[in-house]
Amino acid sequence: MKYFGTDGIRRIANTELTPELVYKVAKAGAYVLAKHSNHAPTILIGRDTRLSGTLIESAMTAGFLSYGANVKLLGVLPTPGVAYLTKKLKADASVVISASHNTYDFNGIKYFSNKGMKIPDSIEEEIEEILESGDLEKLTAESNKIGVSEVREDLLDEYLYFFRKNFEDEFENLYNDDFVVAIDTANGATSVIADKVYTALGIKHYIINNTPNGININENCGSTHLDMLKKFVTSNKCDLGIAYDGDGDRCLAVDENGNEIDGDIITAIISNALKKENKLAKNSLVATVMSNLGMRKYAKDNGIHLEQTKVGDRYVLENMLENGYNLGGEQSGHIIFLDYNPTGDGILTSLMLLRVMLKEKKKLSDLAKIIKIYPQVLINAKVSNEKKDDFKKDKEIVEKIENLEKEFEGNGRVLIRASGTEPLVRVMIEGENIEDITKKAQEMADLITKKLS
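RESULT FIELD:
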């Protein structure tokens, strides 16, 4: 697709993601999302803390109103908060203005349907067709049908209530006063709400990186830069650290010793606890092909069925909905608890993890022992864009992959895939010895570059 990638539209704000383009995307989106309804659509808009957020919000609002849609402006709110409110308020659709974990100069647009889920590829394709068709001018409301917008930043409290409703009673019984959490909000969308949630639930906490200024989002902080949080947790003797990304749909953790607890480990810990409580639907778990080899072994050892999908949380969700599963996630900390919300939610993930720690009265480092994480090496092979899918057909490459798999005897894994956006083939190898797999990955990447350049 020309505009939409695996996670909406994401570009440098004001030069590539211009107000003109945003206006058109809003108009086209409102048309496609509303054509199956017989009323003026209501669309919610939430954003993260980027400097360009209000610029894009203004252009987006103008596009929606010009088409005849009504808009509720939610202000700074995590992506899952917008998804939750879309369903709760029975809005027709919503938009999140965010570039997630990217630097502040990027921004992006993610559409959500009335079910609070990211819209499918087919709807994005339809929006692109309208954008390219030259018919946008026709999608203009008559004078008496122009939409109106209203600021509804008070709806943040509805999202806060969602956490209170689901966790307040249980945490009141489980919580002990010695337990302390450090939270890194990445100077992003969780900067205000995270503190409100933890305060409302009576959990002792420190908050760092919660003073956004428009350009410090994700800057050496949050789930993509854990060093500051690791130091904070160990020097302040916290029980764990929690790190969100810029738009608040991901969560990674740090144990009491400062070790990283990634999405695979978090998913393993929580799935094991849910299984014990008979709350893991069909004793199954969904992950992507990029999840660690340790995840497969953990699932097998604990009698859990593991499904693996293409990379991207939308594919995890599709699989969950198709098969009636309620837990799925990615290594990046994007974890979906379908019993609560149909999108990854960093704050929800952190509370589910805390719940396990408090219930089982165990340190995070002890809980993490349930899964062995294998070293993983990722090397990009530069290739010609036209040939990047040909690795599957090249006899020498296929043979080398097969020989490596045999050599590992189940204690290693080779995953080769073409990049969706760049002239690259990604070579990922897992195994027990980091030096060994680095050498093997480099050899594989060199062969692919030689054959497919």
